[in-house]
Amino acid sequence: MAGKLKVACIYDFDLTLSEEYQQFPIFREFADGIRKKYGITSIDDYFPTLCSGQGIDVGVGAMQQVLRDAQDIFPNLTNERLRRVYGPQIQLAPGLPEWFPRMTDYARELSLDLSHHVISAGFSPLIEGTSLTPYLASIRSGTFLEGSQGIERIKTIVDPNSKREEIIKICKGTDVHEDVSIDDYHITYENVIVIGDGSSDRRKFNFILERGGIAIGVYPCGDNEHKERAQRDLTGRVHYLVPRDYTSHSSLELMVRHSLEKMATRTCQFDFHLVHGLKLNHMRSPELKEITQKHLEGCDDCQERNKDTILLEEQAF
């Protein structure tokens, strides 16, 4: 891959690469215990009732809540059991994992070196247990420490507010606080595609939009209610809003292929921060505003990255 332009797809996991929250296989096995302890009749209500319903951030609260229940209703919950037993049971989105080698091969045809990464507020062992792992360059998610009875402490947490820091680490190829020249970045931000599903991804969407990368929001196939919610949450924060479908010839594949093609042929070196600032009317200098406006009017690439959200339906080509 020497000499090839490095690009990345960075994904959320829950309801982006999966059709359900990653903890649902655990909840299904111990549904009776959840019902007896909390009176919850549907596993869908576990996090809304015990986390968001109590004003607790689900990203952090999910780890705390599952850890608490591992002491009684989820017995013998170890990292290995999460990885070996429950990870493989997670229902993945259509077209996975075949999507990853197909996109990597297509990028290679464009002389691009594409890597795939997951940033999730969930649990690393669960994601590691899925069939996606062989195709992922990194998994950035929460981890547990174990004792004699299984998981007993939280080791690391990735919450919605820290996801953009994980993007920085991926792009720098080093610690987020280490000073690195942009010329020495492992992957520059304009060569990143971020894919997510909802409001918890808005900070990382905003981060990559400001820096000239591509943001794609996904919603469940054939679900008008969730599509409308995604439109409310993500319009203006993503370039494309498409069904959560990774099969060949899907709308999502069309947009990712198109984005990779643009990256492969890009010649514009203008600082996209300025273009984004112009769009938000955040520029005080009349001279800088004039220079940026003039560039934008003559640059098709910046115009495309500066456009409003496009909603696409299923099977675009």
Helix-strand pattern? EHHHHHHEHEEHEHEHEHHHHE
Helix/strand-derived category reads: alpha/beta
Q: Give the strand line-up of the largest sheet.
A: 4-3-2-1-5-6-7-8
Mean of all residue-level pLDDT scores: 92
Would you write up a description of this structure?
The chain starts with a strand and ends in a 6-residue tail after the last strand. The chain has helices at about 25-30, 30-40, 45-50, 60-70, 80-85, 100-110, 125-130, 165-170, 200-210, 225-235, 250-265, 270-280, 285-300, 300-305; strands at about 5-10, 110-125, 140-145, 150-155, 190-195, 215-220, 240-245, 310. The radius of gyration is 21 Å and the shape is elongated. The protein has an eight-stranded mixed sheet, sandwiched between helices. The chain has a single domain (about 5-20, about 90-145, about 155-310), classed as 3-Layer(aba) Sandwich (Rossmann fold), CATH 3.40.50.1000. It is of the alpha/beta class and about 325 residues long. The mean pLDDT is about 90. It contains 14 helices and eight strands. Helix content is about 40%, strand content about 15%.
